[in-house]
Amino acid sequence: MRLSEFWALADDVFGAAYARSLARDLALDRFSSLTVAEALETGAAPRDVWHAWCEQMDVPARQRDGGDRTRMIPPPR
After folding, report:
1. pTM for the full model?
2. Could you tell me where the beta strands, DSSP code E, fall in the chain?
3. pLDDT for 69 beyond 90
């Protein structure tokens, strides 16, 4: 998953304004309490950050593609 795909998904799932706010403020348990943005800045794989974010926000697996069933979401590692 590319970073541009990550942000497109975030916008589709959470809404553009809310996604950016969450990315700055939400501490991810799986990434030692780094925020979404910090985890990406430290070089974490966008797909791993995406799945951690969705799990923490209780986004069902069927909704993690942002409503685009043709969009391929790499599985978590």
Report:
1. 0.89
2. 27-28, 34-35
3. no
